[in-house]
Amino acid sequence: MEITLNKKNNTEGIIKIKLTEGDYQPHVEEKVKDYSRKANIKGFRQGKVPSGVIKKMFGKSILVDEINHLLSHKLSDYIKDNQIKILGDPLPNQDKAKAIDWETQTDFEFEYQIGMVDEFTYDVSSKVKVKSYPIEVDQKTIDETLNDVRKRFGKVSYPETSEAGDNIFGELRAQEGDFKKEQAFISIEKVEKKEQKKFTGLKKDEEVEFEVSKIFSDEAETAQLLGISTEEAKSAKGKYIFKVATISRTEPAEINTELFDRVFGKDAVTTEEEFINKVKETVSENYKRESDHFLDHNIEDYFITNTAINLPDDFLKSWLMSSSNGEVTEDVINKEFEHYKRGLKWDLVKNRIADDNKITVEADEVRSKAKELIVAQFGGQAFIEQLGDRLDGIADNYLQNENGQNFMRLYNQLRGEKILKYIKDNISIEEKKVSVEEFKKIVAEHKH
């Protein structure tokens, strides 16, 4: 057997494997004997089928299976033993494979195209500057949240005539064209102030006509109404007609013990002051998570943009086509390729940082994370006390489910968190406090 690597450049190469009869024939003969012992063929006693009969009936398929098995192991061993850092999987040369004459050939040559990771450098130091935007929660945001909470837990009625603040449900259709949505919904308070009058004073079966580009300032509302993406909503225009079917009105819940218990659980808060403070605390925590997530995104974007990594684009496109089993077209791959490359570059950078700085995740850490998730989902401290020692077994079962995918998902999550923490601890993070509205604008203007 002869295995060689011919490098086209630093990121592409061909692995050639040459086999002679002595490399595979002993395996083939052993398999033929195994077939002879197990085969149940009419005219022969089980276990007494002659090898010649087996070879005549199954010889070609046995040969193909054994050579493929041998190739798979030897290719994998060669890559591992020579520490070749490959991307994706080796791609066999299909033209050469199709040209093989399995009936007469005794020597074989196979080729595999591989993509490789080129050497690259990265910088995790104080020279790296990434912006962070902690959100200052103002009183307006707290008041809006309190109002939303009271409405969410308020009493719903169904009046005959719509007023400001009501929700209307019904049929939406375009004035021109075939567009029609039988179950549409408009929250009147989300409509632009100067357009709201059109939607008040309406009764069941009455219709209102409007220009869709004028009624909402938030593209998300336009997207919800028309059933399209927010990107498509940016260019949405034209006149539409809404036919009212139902009007709903929510009377905000009173701020009292009943509301406290429904929102935060029984006896978690007992006074209005405690309730408002708890709402503020919850809102602040939520916005902190958003700010932290955006910082993580900015860090990822920085390293993708500022780390030069040479990638084998043609190989990667071929591999993506091959691994999709025909489910993805070449046009789709070309369209999504830059997005895929960004993700790949970030993975390569993270892996290098983890390897260079010995960042690891132990099985016990994954188990502890699983227990945290289970406890959070099923009731906190009371759930822990109820289960006692059984929590470990529940966590182990969860991690083993889905062929270990739950374990790998949590493992990768913890590993990613550790890598990001290492980066944050060693780079310069420039903080700029912003309001909720400023933060939303910054996120919206971000390119990725």
Describe this structure in words.
There is one protein chain. With 448 residues, the chain is an alpha+beta fold. The protein folds into three domains: 2-116, Alpha-Beta Plaits (2-Layer Sandwich); 155-251, Chitinase A, domain 3 (Roll); 259-445, Trigger factor, domain 2 (Orthogonal Bundle), CATH 1.10.3120. It has 16 helices and eleven strands. It has helices spanning 21-38, 51-81, 94-98, 139-152, 212-215, 219-226, 230-233, 257-264, 272-306, 313-323, 330-356, 363-378, 380-387, 390-400, 405-426, 436-445, and strands spanning 2-7, 12-19, 86-92, 108-116, 129-132, 155-157, 167-174, 180-187, 207-211, 239-251, 428-431. Strands 6, 7, 8, 9 and 10 form a five-stranded antiparallel sheet that branches. A four-stranded antiparallel sheet has the order 1-2-4-3, sandwiched between helices. Strands 5-11 form a two-stranded parallel sheet. Strand 1 and strand 2 form a beta hairpin. The longest helix is centred in the middle third of the chain and has 35 residues, at 272-306. The chain starts with a strand and ends with a helix. This is Trigger factor.
Brief description of this entry?
This protein has helices spanning about 20-40, 50-80, 95-100, 140-150, 210-215, 220-225, 230-235, 255-265, 270-305, 315-325, 330-355, 365-380, 380-385, 390-400, 405-425, 435-445; strands at about 1-5, 10-20, 85-90, 110-115, 130, 155, 165-175, 180-185, 205-210, 240-250, 430. With about 450 residues, it is an alpha+beta fold. One of its GO terms (molecular function) is protein folding chaperone.
